[in-house]
Sequence to fold (164 residues):
Amino acid sequence: MTKRYWLMKSEPSAYSIDDLKRDKSTLWEGVRNYQARNFMMKEMKVGDQALFYHSNADPPAAVGVAEVSGLAEPDPTQFDASDCHYDPKVAPSNPTWYCVRVKFKEKFAREVPLPEMRAREDLQSMVLLQKGSRLSIQPVTGKEFKIICDLGSRAAAIGRPKSR
DNA sequence: GCCAACGTTGGC
DNA sequence: GCCAACGTTGGC
Fold:
């Protein structure tokens, strides 16, 4: 099966790329949107690559790469009354919410801020940039993934022109 | 803090 | 099944 590419949002105040770096891997808990859940449940495979995106940050930015390291399993927080993602409607015998495990791959040498992505002609079709889009887990193409990784590497910093 | 856009809930 | 009201997301 071909490797696929994703973008996963997290508010850095809740869980940042540095948290993932520290933890090495984590369950992507707390997703409470069916479309995002379905990507995790039905489409994400071990080895898939994901851009780690900081939402509600200043500026919002792609900050690194994670890799799917475990197929979807029931999200434990849906059963935990002390957790802010607790879902009292869910019976333990029949989980509603699932999450994959992801592991840390890299933190970009520099963040790739949202306005920079917006400004690029070759990223216009990204789900992230569509008006009103707020999916917290979304597919990206291999091409988009590579462009953003390149922008995040130091060599590509500030989009210096090739010729002068 | 504001607010546009989206998703969910619940009355009918 | 419609749709108004409400809650949430997330950029600005």
Remarks:
- Residues 9, 11, 32-33, 55-56, 59-60, 114, 134, 136 of chain A lie near DNA strand C (CB under 10 Å from a C1').
